[in-house]
Fold this sequence. Notes:
The chain contains eight helices and 16 strands.
Amino acid sequence: xxxxxxxxxxTLAAFILIAPGTRAQEDKVFRALTxxxxxxxxxxxxxxxxxxxxxxxxxxxxxxxxxxxxxxxTHFSGEDIMLDCVFRGMPLEKVNQWNTLTKISRAxxxxxxxxxxxxxxYGLDLAGGATAGTIKQYLARFExxxxxxxxxxxxxxxxxxxxxxxxxxxxxxxxxxxxxxxKKKANAAGVMMFDFAxxxxxxxxxxxxxxxxxxxxxxxxxxxxDANRYNFNRxxxxxxxxxxxxxxxxxxxxxxxxxxxxxxxxxHHWILSFGEDARHFADYAKxxxxxxxx
Length: 294
């Protein structure tokens, strides 16, 4: 994901003044918000995150999901923090229109090798100290802002937009919204394929003419008995053994039938759910690959 610019959009002092007095007394005030304190707040909210840091070690990045949105929280040396999320591209005039309407966030237009996109950002000044309640409310307000911005750029709630055909551009926009870095290419049959990493696994999404989508991930081969047992106990996905040119492997696959129309929110959920399926099968396969079964 991009490196967010530093902007303070919400003063902590004002936030503390409007918070209920009893809650303000209960919360511990952090004079300097450490990475450990940030992680504790996320853990208290049961948010699973992946942490990375800058080369200098003075900035820390926490990537996590809020609903169908892939969010990044950037911790700037304890002085301020920033939340951001990547969305589809739209004209600069519309970006400016959003910025005239919102009170707490800002949108900006950017472009990279994959195309145009916009970024929604929300900053919090920590110079006056912070409480755990402050950070939790900050996260909750950004989640609400994400939904409003998504509705603003689509013209309707994302789950209500029915697609008669899923174009490759639409898939790219969805992947960008989820903060997934991808590479695309067409196979010999003309099927567009999108490669990306999710849940620590390399995945591939196939678009069969906009009427059928498939996503898969490869694992070391498990026995046919183990594959069949997993298929018997799981829904919506399938485990298949393949023999490639040089190696045999096991694939986890899932299809989404789009023939009768599909909503963007359904595709978002389908991709994220498959990430959890991949995580679950990885644990299962590891248990089956004992020394005797390898």
